[in-house]
Amino acid sequence: MADALFLGLDVGTSGVKALLVTEAGAVEATATTPLALSTPRPGWAEQHPDSWWDASLASIRQLLAPRSARRVRAVGISGQMHSSVFLDRAAEVIRPALLWCDGRTTAECAEITQRVGGEGRLRDWVCNPALEGFTLPKVLWLRNQEPAAFARLATVLLAKDFVRLRLTGTLGTEPSDASGTLMFDPARLRWSRDMLDAVGLPVSLVPEVGGSSEVLGHVTPAAAALTGLVPGTPVVGGGADNACGAAGVGAITPGEAVASWGTSGTVLAPTAEPRVDPALRAHTFCHVAPGVWYVMGVVLSAGGAFAWYRDQFARDLMGADQPDARLTEEAAAIPAGADGVTFLPYLQGERTPHRDAAMRGAFVGLSLAHSRAHLTRAVLEGVCFALRDSVSILQELGLAPSHLLLTGGGARNPLIRRLQADVFGLPVSTVDREEGPAYGAALLAAVGAGAFPDLAAAVRHTLTRAPPAYPDPQAHRAYQALYDRFRASYPASRPPRTTEPRVG
Known about the structure:
Blueprint: E1 5-11, E2 15-22, E3 27-34, E4 46-47, H1 49-64, E5 72-79, E6 85-87, E7 97-98, H2 106-116, H3 119-126, H4 135-145, H5 147-152, E8 155-157, H6 159-168, H7 175-178, E9 184-185, E10 190-191, H8 193-199, E11 215-218, H9 221-227, E12 234-236, E13 239-240, H10 241-247, E14 258-261, E15 265-271, E16 283-286, E17 293-299, H11 303-313, H12 323-332, E18 342-344, E19 362-364, H13 372-396, E20 404-408, H14 409-412, H15 414-424, E21 428-429, H16 437-448, H17 455-462, H18 473-488
Parallel strand pairs: 1-5, 5-13, 14-20, 20-21
Antiparallel strand pairs: 1-2, 2-3, 4-7, 6-8, 9-10, 11-12, 14-15, 15-17, 16-17, 18-19
């Protein structure tokens, strides 16, 4: 396999990223095709699955245009978790997918909890609470709100599995993504018939489950003509974006932990057995490495909060080179705590630790003395504080990390790296292959093609860690007080209850 390449594809929320990785772990080429997000109503978030496929085609074609597709020995796919693809019997899309950050299913979450007999059953059957972002509430929403569409429903897929279906013609999924549906039992590695029976859904709605590095299909001639790939190229199971992102920085063994800034933000700690937060504030999912699970806290708006802020408050920089870097340069000149400004990043509600889709973002403490630079600093600190909530839960559960690997936008920016070290009070480090979930997907493809005996060997062979950056003790003490201020500001994120005005 001296000249072999492994293609990793990540079906994200803001774009589809593709990359080619050599057996030595070097990234030979990357390509990203942007995606648009539809928000038909406040709290709703949709994308049409066909847009994922179109963007996947564009990214793959861009990679392959100047090189031989015969070098590509296997394909791995990562993707946004939870997002529901509704297919009819002909495998055609029924309606746009409801995304992981869609908050319309509060009533369905209550329905699920009531039908199963309380959160104790949810803990036992699926290791997680009924939350708006998960897939099962979306299926019930379709049944309750769009019965004609539900009557056509034959299969529910996740984002990456839809793209693999279009590539291979094969229906399937794997444990890391199935764990986020609320229909899969992560502890027993199977679809939960107890859960499906309780809500009145047939197990035929969900696909067969294979391994993350197992070959689950091969590129069809039709897909080969569209992508430029060679017909018959193996396509492995792949994994959920958070699990693949962790694999892409080598966090696949207990004792590790990784903090990620994508559209959402996560703090993830692998475990040797399924560990469940008694309060169900954090999630328990299967990892892409066999026999490994992880506990994860989720911030729904991390990089997404910063992107929203940039687009709304820094439009004058949109034509400039590297507008994000310009903003963080401004923020670096502002002292810790942003001179009293606190940002609550709950623009789409929040998961960890609040489990509240109705929460909303807020700036607290504004005055005439504050500038855009203060607000930028507050946004960056607010996301770090929200992620620290998850770090605190891991510590409570006995999973206290000694250090954190960083991935995503928070790994690439020096100020955000420093903020995370000082806010968390932990050493942070990065790896030499900062490509996110697509890189982890490519490693799974390499394992599936036989280039490595397992994922651990692939990680050892391809990744090198940078020396850790240690927190400044004085800065960490200061941020402890500022974190307390952030937590005291929670009430500002909760919409006030309104009553109808009296007449007469």
